[in-house]
Amino acid sequence: MIVFDENNLTVEQYLHLRQQVRWKPLTLPQAQKALDHSLYVLAAYHDGELVGMGRLVGDGAVICYIQDLIVVPNIQAHGIGSMLIERLIAYATSLGIPDTTMMLDLMCAKGRESFYQKHGFIARPTEDLGPGMIQYLQL
User: Nearest 5 degrees, angle CA 41-CA 75-CA 46?
Assistant: First the structure.
């Protein structure tokens, strides 16, 4: 059974999950600030073991981003990612102002587009939307 916990993920747990999926390393202060400034952090546990998390950032009115969605490799493809993203979408929806439109964005890993399309996301570029872009700031 999967149990979810809201806004209690420790920085050590966050860094450990990132390491398991081989994401770019973060410093402890960087990771702590990221968690502290998140709108919502959702952790998933299977039999008491942390197996995934999702993190939402943004202003909660015009735009929100699913910044992190992690499921540890040995338990992927068991629906945990879908459960996490559905809860992140529901939370973002709960923040919005009635009778308005809010964008919910994300950047997905190469090859994961179909997973996100299954949950209503649109791959860019399209006829109306240009490609997503990124810039790394070396501080």
Answer: 60
